């Protein structure tokens, strides 16, 4: 890759001491045989997709996302099926894609060095549409129900100070919320109906805290993994959590797990939803599909 040009798309709200990072990025790129990278900032109006499109048009050989999971998702969506690889420089609370790719996170030098010296691999993306809204891409996980309630309830200042444990502070309130009726169709098969508290769809399954929600999930296996959680009360959630983290979840009423390429979830009333940890409002329908081999990454 000698002489190739990299672009770093960064979220100014996540980046402190930018002059130092610019200096270090130039040094690391020179050491690895790359040109000095160009830096493009996201804005309140453009969370990364627009500036990534500009980088593509100007001939970038690599686009790195520096920020949280939202920035990574926006850049990944814009790079999908362009043949230009993504580099993940995670500086967020969850750093979900970096974790699942085995990349460093919250360490700029280590992250950029790993990307520049890594090899290119192909991974899947997920695609989701809530109600009649736009179709989002997702790199790791989406959900409806309790997980989205936890994401929406986390205070930004606590997230910045505590990291992912900040989400747990709102868990008591989320546990008290009522469940919802759901009709789930996987790959066009016979619908399954029931009462749920949370429905997750994973492209890969490694979460903060070392929890591997779907150990058999692979980010390049051409399928998604849908999990429907139906516990009752605090005791039910305790049992569901134990079963999830100890892998005893298949064939039990608390957690239903299905591999799929497409899926449709319909709920009895609007339910909070999230995409890669970012709340996106409430919806009554969730349509998902796998976009197999859509993205190149350097890792």
Automatic annotation (TrEMBL):
Signal peptide: none annotated. Its cofactor is Mg(2+). Residues 1-132 form the DAGKc domain. Belongs to the diacylglycerol/lipid kinase family. Keywords: ATP-binding, Kinase, Lipid biosynthesis, Lipid metabolism, Nucleotide-binding, Phospholipid biosynthesis, Phospholipid metabolism, Transferase. GO terms for molecular function: ATP binding; kinase activity. GO terms for biological process: phospholipid biosynthetic process. It holds the Pfam family YegS_C. This is Diacylglycerol kinase. PROSITE patterns: DAGK (PS50146). InterPro entries: ATP-NAD_kinase_N, Diacylglycerol_kinase_cat_dom, Lipid_Phosphate_FormReg, NAD/diacylglycerol_kinase_sf, YegS/DAGK_C. It comes from Acidipropionibacterium acidipropionici.
């Amino acid at each position: 890759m000698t002489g190739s040009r990299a672009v770093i798309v960064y979220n100014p709200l996540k980046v402190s001491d930018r002059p130092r990072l610019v200096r270090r990025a130039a040094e690391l790129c020179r050491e690895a045989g790359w040109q000095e990278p160009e830096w493009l900032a996201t804005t309140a109006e453009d969370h990364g997709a627009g500036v990534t499109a500009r980088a593509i048009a100007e001939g970038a050989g690599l686009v790195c996302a520096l920020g949280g999971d939202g920035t990574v998702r926006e850049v990944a969506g814009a790079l999908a099926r362009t043949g230009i690889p993504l580099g993940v420089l995670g500086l967020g609370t969850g750093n979900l894609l970096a974790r699942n790719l085995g990349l460093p996170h919250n360490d700029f030098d280590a992250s950029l060095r790993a990307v520049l010296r890594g090899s290119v691999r192909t991974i899947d993306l997920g695609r989701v549409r809530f109600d009649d809204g736009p179709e989002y891409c997702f790199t790791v996980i989406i959900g409806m129900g309790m997980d989205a309630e936890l994401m929406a309830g986390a205070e930004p200042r606590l997230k910045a100070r505590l990291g992912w444990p900040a989400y747990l502070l709102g868990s008591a309130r989320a546990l008290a919320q009522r469940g919802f009726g759901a009709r789930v169709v996987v790959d066009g098969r016979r619908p399954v109906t029931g009462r749920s508290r949370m429905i997750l769809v994973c492209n890969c399954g490694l979460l903060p805290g070392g929890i591997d929600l779907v150990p058999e999930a692979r980010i390049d296996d051409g399928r998604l993994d849908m999990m429907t959680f139906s516990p009752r009360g605090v005791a039910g959630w305790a049992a569901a959590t134990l079963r999830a983290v100890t892998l005893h979840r298949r064939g039990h009423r608390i957690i239903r797990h299905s591999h799929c390429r497409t899926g449709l979830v319909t709920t009895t009333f609007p339910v909070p939803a999230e995409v890669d940890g970012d709340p996106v409002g409430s919806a009554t329908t969730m349509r998902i599909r796998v976009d197999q081999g859509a993205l190149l990454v350097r890792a």
